Amino acid sequence: MAQLEIKNLKKIYPPNVVALKDISFEVEKGEFLVVIGLSGSGKSTLLRCINRLIEPTEGSIKFEGREVTTASKKELREIREDIAMVFQRFNLIERSLVLTNVLTGQLAELPLWRSLLGRFPKELKNRAYERLETVGIPEQALKRADELSGGQQQRVGIARALMQDPKLLLADEPVSSLDPATSGTIMDYLAEINNQGKTVITSLHFLDLVRKYGTRAIGLKDGNIVYDGHPKDIDDEKFKEVFGEEAEKVHIT
Amino acid sequence: MKRPRKFTLPDFVDDVKPFLLDWLIWGYLAYTVIFLLNSYWYTQYVNWYGTLTLKPWGWALTIIGTFSCALLSEKFGISVGLKTIKSVERPPQKAWALTNWGITTLALVVFTFWVGWLTTDMEIGVIARRAPKTFHLWSGLSHPDFTHLINIDPELEDTILGSLIDTIFMAYLATVIGGILAAPLGFLGARNIMGGTWFRRIIFYITRAFFNVVRSVEALLWAIIFAIWIGWGPAAGTFALLIHSMAALAKLFSEQVESIKKGPIEAVQSTGASFWQTVRYGAVPQVVPQYTAFLLYRLDINVRMATVIALVGGGGIGRFFFYYKSQLDWNQVGAVTIIIAAVVWILDYISGKAREKIV
Questions:
Q1: Which domain does B214 fall in, by range?
Q2: Within 13 Å of residue A57, how many CA atoms lie on the same side as its CB?
Q3: Which residue from A minimizes the CA distance to B270?
Q4: CA separation for the pair B32, B120 (Å, rounded)
């Protein structure tokens, strides 16, 4: 049984914008899956359907044998504990400390009253520091998140995701708002996480990154899968099929 | 598949809304025209104290007339309703005021101003003509009498300074308690937080209705209510300010909550956090600075309001103002006015500086 099974997934935004038409694929444990496609091709929607930040319209998503689409609120929270997410715009709580941002990663493990009062046990704080060390910025822990540079903020985002100790990491265009050098560092962290046996699903724009890091690529176009295979096998023709007229632009960068 | 049901209005409502708004506008224009006719023509030439009473067929005519105007306005592209509700794009290369909607809107503004001017008996000349009447006021202000600043006034059994401190405490208590009560109301009255399910939607509407009703009753009226309820004095004034602050702050807070960024909320949700954990870690940190700024601003307003509330028995420094005024003791009125102005100015300055630092 694959870790993630998506069958006939469909998403229609009211009133009638079809974002995903009929998506089916499976992801094995330990894969580094890259979703490619133009803006508006449904990448973000697909990733957000997996942890149901966006409600799918039809179809089934099974994560480790549990149905996500019909999960009750409690079940969904349990599923989400195992699926971490990293965002394009980092989505940190900007006015909170870096440490607090990382700690939000494991809110689900805390009893409600304790989390509402902000009383995190020592053990969790130590874990948060460890995660910040993993991404190389332990010295920033007591700064406000919005004082950090873009690359550092994304590292905090990754540390927050790692705090969950996830089985699957979703990264929605994690490097799209970063410069090329920083992008490489961030991708290296994702690769490292992947090497530790965690599945990574990410959406990317740049083909060289896709080739360097992905073990598998899925091309999305107008809500359909137009490519599914090894990133190395994407030739110019395939690439044009996925990206259409924009192909050359993307190739250069 | 089961998922939360969203609350939506039936589709035809969206089509009817612009038309109803147009009808309302045309009806209103008809009213202003009748009003102006009344004011300039009818009262002079027909019956100088009379009003224009519409014959039964006049009413029918107005209704049918405005109805058809509303119908036609969509056809000729002068529908303000369509413009506001369906946000129709305006033709390019044309100044806003020259578009058909622009002309209609300008007509509305001009006619309203005209009718308003007549209704409120506005007159420029009277300002100059009656200026000498205020002489004793100005002379009082320029020769303030500070005798009772620290000496007890036997009539009022207090000093100006003492009652000033009362006033500030009233404002402070009202702001603190009102702010504490308003914080949860701000969340319960925010569409984005409470829009998810039917149950939350109902709470949202109840909360909104509650603070909108409370807010629309002026603090002065609340002071009258509380003066009757718990008796004259600073406590009544504090309650009045408190209730009004709570509603006004809740309104501001809820708007603030509605404008929070979705990203951090998504991020917290995606970790498996519950609804209230998401509110605590995703939403609250985003609104705290603005909350604090609003509180400071409100404290400022409350001090100003607390001075007026004495008029209806709310206690505080206003008591001195209204008492001296009733005694025509203009020099003491001047002293109180200067004190109030100074305190308001200082507070305004401090809270302004503090707000700059926070936001």
A1: 147-358
A2: 15
A3: A80
A4: 14
Are A20 and A223 in contact, with CB atoms under 8 Å apart? Answer: yes
Facing A78 at nearest CB: one of B2, B268, B272: B272
Which residues of chain B have a CB within 8 Å of the CB of A83? 270
Backbone angles phi, psi at B40, to 5 degrees: -100, -35
**Nearest neighbour of B270 by CB, restricted to A80, A106, A118:** A80
Shared-domain flag, residues B109 and B27: yes
Last residue of a domain, one of B64, B88, B122: B122
Same domain, B212 and B295: yes
For A83-99, what is each residue's pLDDT tens digit? 999 999 999 998 899 99
CATH number of the domain to which B169 belongs: 1.10.3720.10
Q: Are residues B196 and B306 in the same domain?
A: yes
Q: Residue length, chain B?
A: 359
Half-sphere exposure of A248 (CA within 13 A, CB side): 1
Tens-digit pLDDT profile for chain B (359 aa)? 444 455 556 666 777 888 888 888 888 888 888 888 777 766 554 444 555 566 677 778 888 888 888 888 777 777 777 777 776 666 666 676 667 777 888 888 999 999 898 888 888 888 888 888 888 888 888 899 888 888 888 888 889 999 999 899 999 999 999 999 999 999 999 988 887 778 889 999 999 999 999 999 988 899 999 989 998 888 899 999 999 999 999 999 999 999 999 999 999 999 999 988 998 999 999 999 889 999 999 998 999 888 888 888 777 888 888 899 899 889 999 999 999 999 989 988 988 888 888 77
The CATH number assigned to the domain with range A4-92+167-252 reads: 3.40.50.300
By DSSP bridging, strand A17-27 and strand A32-36 are: unpaired
* Token representation of residue B36: 């102006």
Calpha distance A176→B248 (Å, rounded): 42
CA end-to-end span of chain B, whole Å? 45
> What CA–CA distance (Å, rounded) separates B191 from B200?
9
What total number of domains does chain B contain? 2
Pick among A91, A97, A153 to test the B interface (most B CBs inside 10 A)? A91
- Which residues have a Cβ under 8 Å from the Cβ of B57 and sit 6 or more positions away? none
Contact B322, B333 (CB under 8 A): no
Sheet of A224-229, strands arranged across? A83-86, A168-171, A199-203, A32-36, A216-221, A224-229
B322 and B236 housed in the same domain: yes
Q: Tell me the C-alpha distance between B149 and B145, whole Å.
A: 9
Asked if A83's CB is within 8 angstroms of B280's CB, the reply is no
Q: Tokens standing for A249? A: 């632009």
Note whether B279 contacts A: Cβ–Cβ < 8 A: no
Q: Which residues of B touch A163 (CB under 8 A)?
A: 271
- Do B179 and B319 fall into the same domain? yes
Going from the C-alpha of A173 to that of each of A38, A206, A236, the distances in angstroms are 12, 10, 22
Count of positions (residues) in chain A:
253
Query: Could you tell me the two tokens for B280?
Result: 């605590």
What are the residue ranges spanned by the domains of chain A? 4-92+167-252
